[in-house]
Amino acid sequence: MGSKVTLKYSIISIPMQEKKMQKYAEQTQQEFEGWEEFFNKPVDEKLENFKRNDRIYDVIYAQQFDRNFLDYLCNLADMIRLLAKTKVGQSKLRHLLPHKRAMLYFVQPSTRTFLSFQNACHILGLTISEIRGTSTSSEVKGESPEDTIRTFASYVDLIISRHPEAGFAEKTAWVLNQTEHPVPVLNGGSGPDQHPTQALLDIYTLEREFRTIGGLDGKKIAMVGDLKRGRTVRSLSYLMKNYQDVELIYVAPEVFRMKDDITEFLRKHRIPFHETDDFESIMPEVDAIYMTRIQNEYAEGPVSEAESFPEFHLKKKHLSMIQTHCAILHPLPRRYEIEIIIDKDPRAAYWRQERCGMWIRAALIAYIFGVEKVIFEEFS
Ligand code: CP
Fold it and tell me: Are the beta carbons of 161 and 106 closer than 8 angstroms?
């Protein structure tokens, strides 16, 4: 996590397609006393701020999750999906949180995170409101992002945000926690920085894929592609400290190597890893391959086709080179990183992975509102 990032909320952060929309004023810039000091603290020193009564309250960083929490949430997700198999079970789930309202504030494009959170809310009976671009909120009139978020907290019990700026969800949670009426904030992706709920669904998927071979402990995982700007691989790397004897292999072209903050974290926590640009050489030895696309949205200039890096693509010819149990993951959306024919291979887990996202996010929301015990009691 780049704790030295300077936050800059401006009209520049509005997605491309919205730039054509009329705006009446630049967004107001507000100074919050104490924020810069808080933001520049090491992450470990900040995590307590996002807890209440010894439970996670705001979900901002993957570093908030320990092994007990991850196992607990994966179990809870399993219970929810089991209950949802029957009409009676679905009705029980829908009656858990009909008195709660959630705001989905997604001002950076999203398909899976938005839809899986939206449907997770539906599963648990929450009512939702949504804003999917700053051009349809009063931000176009110059309202600051902080006042916008504070307004949501006047109406809803939970805010789920996706934003192009690193640190946005954290600032949102911090600002609300200074007010008389805070509500939990879930980070649905903050710039190239973190995507902690994606990391939850990735863990849930890996644990399920490895269910018959001892779970995630002891596994070797390759992460491939644009590791520098891929927030999913960053968040997932942080979670590896919770698992025994896991080894990581970062496979990337020189320009997209994993950043030093993550490799330093791995060294500090004695998580073995190595880096290579020779994808084929490591294929036979890994238990999972986590593919990612080039994150052009963070490019500083136009990106040419030569930058699609075909040597970091997974192709049909590779299926005979990987292990019979090797799980193939991708946070999606994909471009050309995985040949379509691979979708038919049982090791292709990415469609199951996106579905896992809905169940683990339902589990997370149930936990945030403290109703998970009711779900566990159904099975006791
Ligand atoms: N994996 C993921 O975050 O997908 P979306 O961008 O479609 O939400």
Answer: yes
Residue 284: Cβ within 10 Å count: 12
Q: Roughly how many angstroms between the first and final C-alpha of the chain, as a whole number? A: 40
pLDDT in tens, 253-306: 999 999 999 999 999 999 999 999 999 999 999 999 999 998 777 666 555 545
Q: Where are the beta strands (DSSP E) in 37-183?
A: 51-52, 55-56, 101-106, 127-131, 158-163
Q: Is the CB of 118 within 6 Å of ligand 1?
A: no
Q: What are the tokens at 60?
A: 């901002």
Cα(378) to centroid(ligand 1), Å? 32
Is residue 331 within 6 Å of ligand 1 at its C-beta? yes
CA distance 198 to 353: 10
Residue 52, helix vs strand vs coil: strand
Are the CB atoms for 18 and 111 separated by under 8 Å? no
d(CA 242, CA 252): 24
Q: What is the pTM of this model?
A: 0.91
